[in-house]
Predict the 3D structure of the following.
Amino acid sequence: MSDKKSIKLPSHRSFYAAGGAFLLYALLFPLYRHGDYLIAAAVTAFVWLAASKALPKERVEIEEKPVTTGDSLADGALKEGAAYIASVREIRRGIGSKVMVSRLASIERTTDNILSAVRSDPREAPKVRRLISYYLPTLIKLASYYKMLEEQGGEGENAKSSMKRIEDNTATLDSALKKQLDLLYENDALDISTDITVMESMLAQEGLSESPYDKLKQNGGEE
């Protein structure tokens, strides 16, 4: 089953405006030379750009086939995670507080990176279970409540206190998710370290570089 993605495109009327501009230019200024066509093309492009900015964008839905990993647990986590992040992003766009917007945007980026790590290695899916089942749904609930309080003016001690607690909570969650992302890369870092060690040993055995033992002796001799 494919998902639908909504994108914004320039209005089709901007193309009509550009075409009309070209025809009008051709009627007023006959096209005899190569340079005349270049000028007509420049005028047409200018009209299209102006019309594209002036006219409202058209929203178009396209079908997007979901990327599958072959692991049902990982695929479920990726689909749910993407849906939650889309909800967070939509809520963020309606919030005025720069502090809250910045923290939500950071959480979105970190979560996207976490999902990318799961997509690269589906075996990591169990590690993001709580993120998908609790942290993100709760974040949506809190961010929605924050947005509602802000729209109502955020007046009163209870409202201000609740908004401050939500801001602090998002900062804590943002920090925690960054730590989780770092843990997901822990195995990769270990593999890379092992590969580097093996390569250095092979180069030293073939006489193409100094061995760690030779470097140690050299450093010891300098002291």
Remarks:
- The mean pLDDT is 80.
- The helical segments are 12-28, 34-54, 72-92, 98-120, 129-151, 157-184, 186-205, 212-222.
- The CA atoms of residues 110 and 178 lie 6 Å apart.
